[in-house]
Amino acid sequence: MDLNAAGGERTGTAPEAIGGAPERVGAAPEGISVVVPVRDDAEHLWTCLLGLSLQELPPDEVVVVDNGSRDGLDEVLAAARRRWALPLRVIREPRPGVAFAAAAGYDAARHPLILRCDADSVPPPGWTARHARLLRAADAGTVASTGTGRFRPAPRWLGETACRLYIRAYRVIGGLALGHAPLWGSNMAMRASWWAQARPGVHLTAGVHDDYDLSFRLRPGQRFVVDGGNVIGVSWRAVVMPRRVARQLRMAVRVIALQWPEQRPWRRLAARASATLGGPAGSRGLRGRRGPRSSRGTGRTRA
């Protein structure tokens, strides 16, 4: 691969800030770890790292989890270190499967906020700042945030519209079994404290949809925020490769089969409704055009 030519795509201006225009953010009071699992996807990872190098709020570390790559990943990482001042760490996870790789990255993260994207994601300049700002402004019950995406390369309107439909289908269908909107691993952030609480319950196997499985760890009184204005570039591969689509569906069904004996969706909804009625009002004051919604209580509600 020609690393000089693989500059990737700049996404232009950062997405609008929650509650107002984008602003350049200084040092965050809580450190940020970005976790990127990768397996035989070195060329896409180069473009992802380019995006991370351009962040308005630079991450405190970028944890790349090598899940048994055989495509020149080390060459790409060495070139990235030479070109950009990224605080790169490389974790080797030999067990194949994104569930193993993601968990290894989360375990290795050293900072209170853990952001996650995939190797084929291209984060815009305001990506880390937007996730960090949202979680810092929210109350302790808001444990994670998740955004949307735009398929690339494509005309912006087409890529964003198609990806929104894809993610909406995932959230609606997945939410029926879950009882609330799920996290989307290509664009999400969570508190490290919540990962420590959730980790004992996640299923570490190659046959599960890891972000969907993690979503089942949400307890009554906790919530995710769905931020429709947080848009990240992603590959079309998720929807144009039939084998990949079929594999994702099998993994999601596997998660449901594992979770439903203990967590029927109507029981989850009832428990959340009870916790919401007896608990704090939750995160407010984060309104904005295409702004965040919280996934809590009896389902997804406006923040």
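^ that was protein a. below is b, sequence first then the tokens
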Amino acid sequence: MAIAFAHALAPRSSARRLPSLGFRPARSGTTATASFASAEQATVRLPHIPVLLAELSSFFPDGIDTFLDCTIGAGGHASHLLRHKRITQYVALDKDPNALSIARSALRPFDNVRYARADFRDMRAVLDELKVPEVNAVLMDIGTSSMQLDQAERGFSFTHDGPIDMRMSCTGMSARDILDTASERELAELFWTLGEERQSRKIARVLVNERERRPIESTKQLATLVERVKGWRKKGIHPATQVFQALRIATNDELAALEEGLLEAIEMAAPHATIAVISFHSLEDRIAKRVFRMAAERVGGVKLLTKKPVVAAEEECEKNPRARSAKLRVVEKLEPGQVPISGKINKYRER
């Protein structure tokens, strides 16, 4: 049975082609609500440590009319920005209902936050519903959070045994649906394109042979099958990392959503608005780099504030190992008709 999951972008420089699979992840829908709470400041212990806080904050001006946070998560970046910047209204999006619930609790001290359960590719519909014509700052923090990885029932991690789910929105197609119905060739192509897995064909063959004998039902079962193909001495990066990445990206249509979201953010941003994206693997970063550079070449587009991505300092990486793979790219929206110009040089570590 040929399935088609969503379009996703392969690196332009690569000759790889995406698997032609047939159904698309369901949209989570948009539900916009306003939050009103005490303005009293409070310190909240978050289940997820935000990365590049100082670096990110340095790019945003002190006074911001409307800030659009496309991936509110646990509210770590939001809490920092709301405490250190004068922001009139903070619009918080997330397709994960669990993340929104945690963010609401974490940001209870702030009375200028409005929430919407939505994919950031649907930001225009959310802003229209909230009657927000344009935004002055945008943040996208891409990928999975620590709290998602720690919830076994979500199926994102091979270190916690659970169902092979991986849905950010908790609705629609799951990763197991892909594993159960994709052909061997489609799985191999998926692991190669979205996971950059060199042994994609061998892994796909083993998985298809296994599912003919018995269902592949749990994350531990899947990880063990990949271990058999690649081998592992219980140290270093787990051999199933790239397979899990590929399935998660496909399940949530992440790369297509990122490109659409970035293009929409540039379109919705007011002149001089700051747009920042934090990515955690090369496929995401290539898309951000390409979209920003294309926009920087057109009149009325953007100015690159980071010629190369900003990365975390070694001290942060030691405290939070997840920060080691984080890359921050930032642009500023130009005035209509403004000719592209080079941006300022940032003082933080670049790579």
